[in-house]
Write a structure and sequence with these properties.
4-stranded parallel beta sheet; 308 residues; alpha/beta
Length: 308
Amino acid sequence: MNVALLAVDSKYPNLALMKISAYHKSVGDCVEWYNPFDRYDRLYMSKVFSFTPDYDYYINNVSGEIIRGGTGYDIHSSLPEEIDMMQPDYSIYPTIDNRTSYGFLTRGCPNRCKWCIVPQKEGNVRPYMDIEGITMNGTRPYAVLMDNNILASDYGLSQIEKIACRKYHVDFNQALDARLVTDDIAKLLARVKWIKRIRFGCDTTAQISYCVGAIDRIRRYGYNGEFFLYCILMDDIEEAYRRIECWKEYGGKVLPFAQPFRDPHNPNQIIPQWQKDMARWTDRKELYQSTDFKDYQPRKGFYCREYF
């Protein structure tokens, strides 16, 4: 077969499409990114988010199945097991370094956060893969791991122990839960070789103290690198401002990253302008470090001071 892949709404490496590509190549099929001028026997379309636009061009060059998958199309969609367990085909993303791997060690999350669909889609946290499989037995020792709450799993902690012992470099790019960082876990995390930074979520005022405690503990055990905090923006502008502003005293070694809340069940949601402005101010570090949000002028003739 001639098989085409289409990542509808994300340029970030799509793990599902990489595994689909690997499977079809293993059975002798030809696989390439979708080109509207070519002919195909099957097309796989992957959409990550429910609120992003669909592919809006007419498709008339596929003689067989068009398979739409991903949370953006169906929250319950998943790969068949024979495909899910494949090693990803990294060749479809030439920009991925040949020492870098992508994957999950665990799936699911025990939390029930308003802004997250993972528990609904995947259930409670559970073991999924081994770090040796993801890194291809160390041939790709820089692992980008997309677990949603690995610290909530004993299996996950044992995998982090293995990562530290094997001296793999990792990035848990969906963030760790600072509320779970005990002294023992802090000591373990300080042993890990991190790809640039450690990430935590700081989505509520109550989480500030947990993040401070986790950062202090990990530093106490010898980690001197950068911390990165995901900060979702909800309805209260003053609460969001306090939660983001407080990290300036860390001198650029703790970086907040603001994201407006996106309702997965409301594709027509209108994002308040203050959330867009606060996100831009926070995420542009030269703006965040040099000015206060109350003095930030994102659009001509309009001052953020008017928000407060």
